[in-house]
Write a structure and sequence with these properties.
Elements lengths: L10 H11 L9 E5 L41 H8 L16 H4 L2 E3 L9 H6 L5 H19 L1 H10 L1 E5 L2 H8 L3 H6 L2 H21 L4 E4 L9 H11 L7 H24 L4 E4 L3 H9 L49 H19 L3
Parallel strand pairs: 1-2, 1-3, 3-4, 4-5
Helix pairs in contact: 2-13, 5-6, 9-11
Length: about 350
């Protein structure tokens, strides 16, 4: 996987980052997470929404075999990144009543499944908008200061690694599904609209003390099992990926990469890496046997064609016995094994060099 992640940062930006941070020697005290279902560790459990996964068979390969609200059979990327840095092997959700500020000192997740950059996206399934995730982060900072003191809290906030993964829902659950945004923007204009929100979000994180950010892009969203199924039903093309969606993902990732290069120059003391999952995930889809996978076009859960959330419950008789043979757990989300490969690839290729522990 040595070539996948080097494609994610323009070489000059990466060289600058390495020169300025490799020898700092700062320890990563915590992992702080923002985004959507790709990184939500259970916040949707605490809100009124239909988009939940806190029931079997979700979590069957997590610790204790229990569902947590993660959209996977096991762990999600922040969990693996946290473990790689020698922290807790999972990042708790901020709204999980089982955890409190003493648990959040070494990591906390504010992400909400189904959300996006666009506030209209979060309204589709009544989930937490990105702006509210920021409000929770502000609240967390106050609790942290009260718990560990201002000086240590300030150090934790500035030295922590911030993981951000968001954007897929804006396209698949909003722009391509509902008419409103399509009537306002063509696809390139909508990408620019989202990129503008992304810039404002990063600047807000910076103003709130974040200095080390791993910023995710879009996956090959046209290859998700749900989109392959849609393609087969509408276009009669079997289980083929929707290449137009993949091209949108690549184009938007290019915009994000340019934005990150700009902000690295403009924001003093910040280091942002573009931790784009596209190429690593696409390689697994294109060459599954190399990674020990057998199935990519359908997911493990149920028929693997369209099911997600409550359609993937314990009463469905078709769920696969071994999720390790599948790239995708449900029609939208990767398996624990896929998450592990992507996460450790990211850590080994970029994060441990740019943000050493």
């Amino acid at each position: 996987m040595s070539s996948f992640y080097t494609l994610m940062i323009p070489s000059l930006i990466l060289l600058t980052i390495l020169r300025t941070t490799l020898f700092v020697g700062a320890k990563i005290p915590a992992i702080i997470v923002f985004g959507d279902s790709s990184v939500d560790s259970g916040n949707n459990n605490g809100i009124s929404t239909l988009l939940k996964s806190n029931f079997a068979p979700y979590g069957r390969d997590f610790y204790g075999g229990k569902p947590t609200g993660r959209f996977s059979n096991g762990r999600i990327p922040p969990d693996f990144i946290s473990e790689a840095y020698g922290l807790r092997p999972f990042v708790p959700a901020y709204l999980d009543p089982m955890f409190n500020i003493s648990d959040f000192v070494t990591g906390v997740c504010f992400a909400s499944a189904g959300t996006g950059y666009d506030e209209a996206t979060s309204q589709v399934l009544s989930v937490i908008p990105l702006s509210k995730e920021i409000e929770y982060f502000k609240e967390y900072q106050q609790k942290l200061k009260a718990y560990v003191g201002n000086q240590r809290a300030t150090s934790i906030i500035s030295e922590s690694l911030y993981l951000v993964s968001i954007g897929t829902n804006d396209f698949l659950e909003n722009y391509y599904l509902l008419p409103n945004r399509r009537s306002q923007y063509n696809i390139d204009q909508y990408q620019n609209f989202l990129a503008g929100i992304a810039e404002g979000f990063i600047r807000t994180l910076y103003d709130l003390g974040a200095r080390k950010i791993s910023y995710g892009g879009l996956p090959p969203m046209g290859c998700l099992p749900l989109e392959r199924t849609t393609n087969a039903i509408i276009g009669g093309q079997g289980a083929a990926c929707i290449e137009s969606y993949n091209n949108v993902a690549l184009n938007f990732n290019g915009k994000l990469s340019g934005l990150i290069g700009k902000l690295n120059k403009e924001l003093p003391g910040v280091t942002i890496v573009f931790a784009n999952p596209y190429y690593a995930l696409y390689d697994m889809i294109a060459k599954p046997s190399i990674y020990g996978f057998e199935t990519v076009a359908v997911a493990c859960c149920s028929t693997g064609l369209v099911e997600m959330s409550y359609m993937c419950d314990q009463y469905n008789p078709f769920t696969c016995a071994d999720a390790n043979k599948f790239v995708f757990w449900d029609s939208f989300h990767p398996t624990d094994k896929t998450n592990r490969i992507v996460s450790y690839g990211l850590y080994n290729e970029i994060l441990k060099h740019v943000f050493p522990n």
